[in-house]
Design goal:
Helices cover about 35% and strands about 20% of the residues. By secondary structure, the protein is an alpha/beta fold. Strands 9, 10, 11, 12, 13, 14, 15 and 16 form an eight-stranded mixed β-sheet that branches. Strands 3-2-1-4 form a four-stranded parallel β-sheet, sandwiched between helices. Strand 12 and strand 13 form a beta hairpin. The N and C termini lie far apart (about 50 Å). The relative contact order is 0.14.
């Protein structure tokens, strides 16, 4: 195999975690292309950060990636990202980029289907995969000052979120959140009118809230290869989510647990749509009906992907053996138990109300099962260690501000 060079667009914790996986498996250097220098990759010993402020423009992004490829002739370059809007741009410009990179991404048609939460729910219904009751509100259809009637009765509180995260990335309005928890009809009307005034051209979903705190949330990471085989499936129980407006709902702590029913459902979904690449599913255990309810699929590996690597299934291997070496990979379902956590463990425990679960987490930590994606022994720089410490302290500061005490709903 020639020199391997993963190139990632964006620079969040998920990007660092994936490039760490490449480094753990192959010992290779990596390049991050980002709009700003990010703390998650700062002072890394194996990542070169190329900063290009204009990469939200597709032509600027593609040109920068072509320049990176030209600067590394002879390398086997693998292109990855962990942001929906960058996935959209990379897939739309595949014809130019495939000349320089291996690209573990699906077709534009499949991307459009899986990225739309309405379409996601439709395919799930065909496969008898449970999803929440939901109403779609197409914002451009609303006249300014007018709010819609809802065709079905949904009990408050509700959840409201964009049908397409990529489209929503570009809209700005006061009080914008990744996911909105809506207490009553007046709050819903206020949100919808804010979207109208902001000029949002997409669809917003109004969904029933599945009861239970964050420990009932689940995460699933998958890879479906170019042969049409789902080669990687890993599931985990979310213990704590992030609570800042822009990151609300992203797992901050996950305990790996094998949920065979969810793995079967995700595999069936990916096969039905003909998907290629990494996928991350969000779903929740519905205690009322004793079943998993699926919310969405993200066409990327997910910010919390290091729980997969730490549990013994390095994601980098599935990409490289699929697209570079052409090796047929034996499908893996992760079953090892580890605790992925980006906040101090003692801080996490304050949000775990179930005594049995608290005791279990302590046992995992005692046997060395606690992992942090940014704490990589190969990084020896004191400046890097100081940066990771600052990021961790900042998490605590944000929780003190946005979510100081646990609630029964996690909202």
């Amino acid at each position: 195999m020639t020199v391997l060079l993963p190139v990632a667009v964006g620079g969040d914790i998920g990007v660092y975690a994936l490039l760490r996986a490449f480094h753990e498996e192959y010992g290779c250097r990596a390049v991050v292309l980002s709009a700003v220098a990010t703390r998650a990759v700062r002072y890394s010993s194996f990542i070169d950060n190329v900063v290009e402020p204009g990469i939200d423009d597709a032509e600027t992004l593609v040109h920068a990636l072509e320049e990176i490829a030209a600067a590394h002739p002879g390398a086997t370059r693998v292109l990855v990202t962990n942001a929906d809007w960058y996935v959209e741009m990379l897939v739309a410009n595949r014809a130019r980029l495939e000349a320089h990179y291996l690209m573990p991404f699906c077709s534009p048609e499949v991307l459009g289907l899986v990225s739309d939460k309405d379409e996601f729910a439709r395919v799930c219904a065909e496969l008898s995969i449970p999803t929440p009751q939901s109403v779609s509100v197409h914002i451009p259809d609303l006249a300014a000052g007018e709010v819609p009637s809802l065709p079905i009765e949904l009990a408050y509180p509700l959840v409201a979120k964009p049908a397409s995260s990529a489209d929503y990335h570009y809209v700005k309005f006061p009080g914008k959140k990744k996911i909105h928890h809506v207490a009553d009809r007046a709050e819903l009307d206020e949100l919808l009118l804010a979207l109208v005034h902001a000029g949002y051209r997409g669809t917003f979903l109004v969904q029933e809230f599945i009861p239970g705190d964050e420990t009932q949330m689940r995460s699933l990471t998958a890879y479906r290869d170019s042969r049409g085989t789902v080669t990687l499936l890993a599931t985990g129980r979310v213990l704590l989510e992030e609570h800042t407006p822009g990151t609300l709902g992203i797992p901050a702590a996950i305990l790996t647990e094998p949920y065979e029913d969810a793995m079967d459902a995700a595999s069936a979904f990916l096969d039905r749509v003909g998907y290629l690449g990494f996928a991350n599913f969000d779903y929740k255990w519905d205690v009322r009906r004793e079943r998993h309810v699926f919310f969405e699929m993200n066409p990327r590996i997910g910010r919390n992907n290091y729980y997969v690597t730490a549990a013994g299934a390095n994601p980098a291997r599935f990409v490289v053996e699929d697209l570079d070496t052409g090796t047929a990979v034996e499908p893996v379902r992760v079953r090892a138990e580890i605790l992925y956590c980006v906040v101090p463990f003692r801080w996490l425990l304050r949000y775990i109300l179930d005594p049995a679960l608290r005791a279990r987490l302590k046992r995992v930590v005692r046997r060395g099962g606690l992992v942090h994606p940014l704490r990589y022994p190969a990084e020896r720089s004191w400046r890097r260690r100081a940066t990771v410490l600052a990021i961790t302290v900042n998490y605590v500061r944000k929780y003190r501000h946005y979510y100081p005490r646990p609630t029964a709903s996690g909202a």
